[in-house]
Write a structure and sequence with these properties.
Structural class: alpha/beta
Mean pLDDT: 85
CATH topology: Rossmann fold
CATH class: Alpha Beta
Radius of gyration: 17 Å
Helix content: 40-55%
CATH superfamily: P-loop containing nucleotide triphosphate hydrolases
Number of domains: 1
């Protein structure tokens, strides 16, 4: 399972959707799933603590990835990798698996902290649920070292979306996790569902580490 990590406004949903379309895979946005199940996240936070939201969000993630209809690509909530270790009984194990997976990518506007902060704040202020500029800056400055410290591959998103998606596809193909095949006259498609072995498998990294 491909997992996209990063701050709010970095493009996880847009890039995840485009990647899924490119590879003919199923994409799920964790925030959208939370909203569909429990209502608007901002409204939920108004009536509950952030810790209650985080605990429920981890439970939702567990349901998604452990269920029979597990998605192929997931965009994680911006704070998912920053929750306290004890926020949910399964959280620490999930976080470790996400961080160590070769199918996890950290999306950041830039690997330069000041550029990343400025661009993240700019993007967040253009969203309907944005906090104040000061608060947005506090959040990204606190989380930037956590994102950067993840062992997963970092991808800068201040470039055309097609360029970002191509970088992801190339990285996935190099890992033998996804084998895109370009039919004549068509865009690349996935040769087989992610995590499903061919009839005569060769040693590869194609099995998701969360299986």
């Amino acid at each position: 399972m491909i997992q996209l990590v990063g701050p709010g406004g970095v493009g996880k949903t847009t890039i995840g959707s485009a990647l899924a379309q490119r590879l003919a895979l199923r994409f799920v946005d964790l925030d959208a799933e939370f909203a569909a199940r429990y209502g608007n996240i901002s409204v939920y936070l108004d009536g509950h603590s952030y810790e209650a939201y985080a605990e429920r969000n981890v439970g939702l993630y567990s349901d998604l990835v452990g269920g029979p209809n597990r998605p192929d690509i997931v965009a994680l909530s911006s704070g998912f990798m920053t929750y306290p270790d004890d926020i949910h009984p399964a959280y620490l194990a999930w976080r470790q698996r996400i961080a160590s997976s070769p199918l996890t990518f950290v999306l950041l506007p830039s690997l330069d902290v000041e550029v990343c902060v400025a661009e993240t704040v700019r993007r967040q202020l253009g969203r309907p649920f944005a906090r104040s500029a000061e608060r947005e800056e506090q959040v990204i400055r606190a989380r930037f070292p956590i994102y950067l410290g993840q062992p997963a591959r970092k991808v800068e998103t201040m470039q055309p979306m097609d360029t970002v998606v191509t970088e992801l596809v190339t990285a996935l193909a190099a890992q033998r996790s996804v084998a895109p095949v370009a039919p004549k006259g068509g865009a690349p498609v996935n040769a087989r569902p992610l995590g499903v072995q061919p009839s005569h498998p060769a040693p590869s990294a194609s099995r998701c580490v969360l299986e």
